[in-house]
Structure formats: structure tokens, C-alpha cells
Amino acid sequence: MITINSDINIEYEYSGLFRTEESWIHRERIINNYEIIFMLNGTAYIAEENLKYTVNPGDFLILNPGRRHYGYKETLGGISFYWLHFNTCEKYMAE
């Protein structure tokens, strides 16, 4: 379940479609925003810190800012997924 607090703004950063017919593994990195991955085809093997996820078609994964994420296993064959980066901030409430 995802709960969104109404006092939080979600700010879109950037997004795209990743696809390859080659074998692939997610590179290791730490980003400063959230990332949502929505899997279309193939299976991605992505870890965030020490938690390992298997992301299959129809699944989505949210990666947190400031945490190391990386591929822990190579994907063989074709893969495609949408990815979207966003940030959050609290709304300023004038009194």
C-alpha cells in the first residue's frame, strides 16, 4: 500500500523508457531523488542497500534517495521498463 500525505508535494524530475535486447545489469549508484521503475518486459534484479528485489513484468519498484542501489544479477535477453525520478517537499502553509 502506498499512502501519500496531503501535506507533501511531489515534484517531477525526469523520466524515460529503457530497453535493450542485450544482457544487462543495473549500474551501481546513489541518487538524490526517488526513482520508480515499472517493468514491461524481462526481469530486473535490483538491490537497494542489502535488500534484493526481483522486478517482473507488471511490477514496480520505488528506490529511495541517498541509498545505494545496483544490479545484483545480470538480466539475459530483452528487457524494457519505464523509469521516473521525483522529489518530495512539504507544502508551506501560511497561517
Write up what this structure looks like.
The chain has 95 residues and is an all-beta fold. It is 0% helix and 56% strand. It is built from no helices and eight strands. The protein has strands at 8-20, 29-30, 34-41, 44-48, 51-55, 60-63, 68-71, 79-90. The chain has a four-stranded antiparallel beta sheet with strand order 1-8-3-6, with no helix packed on it. Strands 2-7-4-5 form a four-stranded antiparallel beta sheet, with no helix packed on it. It is globular, with a radius of gyration of 15 Å. The protein starts with 7 loop residues before the first strand and ends in a 5-residue tail after the last strand. The model has no long low-confidence stretch (mean pLDDT 90).
Structural descriptors:
95 residues, 4-stranded antiparallel β-sheet, 8 strands, 0% helix, 56% strand
State the gist of this model.
This protein has 95 residues and is mostly beta strands. The protein has strands at residues 8-20, 29-30, 34-41, 44-48, 51-55, 60-63, 68-71, 79-90. It has no helices and eight strands.
How is this fold's topology laid out?
Layout: E1 8-20, E2 29-30, E3 34-41, E4 44-48, E5 51-55, E6 60-63, E7 68-71, E8 79-90
Antiparallel strand pairs: 1-8, 2-7, 3-6, 3-8, 4-5, 4-7
Task: Please tell me what the overall shape is.
Answer: globular
Rg (CA only) = 15 Å
**Spatial ordering of strands, largest sheet:** 1-8-3-6
Weakly predicted, low-confidence segments: none
CA-CA gap between termini: 32 Å
Strand content: over 45%
Output the structural class: mainly beta
Q: What is the averaged pLDDT score?
A: 90
The tally of beta strands, per DSSP, is: 8
Give the helix level as a range of percent: under 10%
The number of helical elements comes to 0
